Amino acid sequence: MFDHNGKIIQKTPYPRPRGTTVSVQQLFSTLPVRHKEFQRNIKKASV
């Protein structure tokens, strides 16, 4: 896991199949308007 400056703050091995895995957490935590729009788009996509 990386902080806002791109520095590694946590290394955790995850067992998974071959390939690339991307995990995104708190993507829009500092941008409330983007977060609301993202939530709205999720609701639209699931209908």
Structure description:
The protein is built from 1 helix and no strands. The protein is an all-alpha fold and 47 residues long. It is flat, with a radius of gyration of 15 Å. 0% of the residues are buried. The mean pLDDT is 82.
Q: What is the overall silhouette?
A: flat
Radius of gyration, CA atoms, in whole angstroms: 15 Å
Q: Please describe the biggest sheet, giving its number of strands, its sense, and whether it closes into a barrel.
A: none
The total count of strands amounts to 0
Task: Write a short abstract of this structure.
With 47 residues, this protein is mainly α.
Summarize the helices and strands and which ones pair or pack.
Layout: H1 32-46
Features:
47 residues, mainly alpha, 1 helix, flat
